[in-house]
């Protein structure tokens, strides 16, 4: 009986963890703008191009 309860609790934790990690769908432009915003080298290269 105790093993069953432990199994149910473990299964519940796994399912809720998997549901919490949803996939983000980004366009290439969105991805690039996020990368530029967080990377100095990309920011410098972007400024050099402009």
Keywords, separated by commas or semicolons:
50 residues; rod-shaped; mainly alpha
How does this structure look, described?
The protein is 80% helix and 0% strand. It has 50 residues and is mostly helical.
Q: What topology emerges from the helices and strands here?
A:
Blueprint: H1 2-20, H2 28-38, H3 40-49
Helix pairs in contact: 2-3
Task: Offer a quick outline of the entry.
By secondary structure, this protein is an all-alpha fold.
- Classify the secondary structure makeup into a structural class: mainly alpha
Uncertain residue ranges: none
User: Termini distance?
Assistant: 68 Å
Order of helices and strands: HHH
Oligomer: single chain
Largest sheet: none
Backbone shape? rod-shaped
Alpha-carbon Rg, integer:
21 Å
User: Percent helix among the residues?
Assistant: over 70%
Which percent range describes the beta-strand content?
under 5%
Tell me, rounded to a whole number, the average pLDDT.
78
> What is the tally of beta strands?
0
Supply the number of helical segments.
Answer: 3
């Amino acid at each position: 009986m105790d093993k069953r309860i432990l199994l149910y609790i473990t299964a519940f934790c796994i399912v809720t963890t998997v549901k919490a990690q949803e996939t983000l769908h980004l366009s290439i432009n969105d991805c690039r703008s996020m990368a530029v915003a967080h990377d100095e080298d990309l920011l410098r290269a972007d400024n050099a191009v402009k």
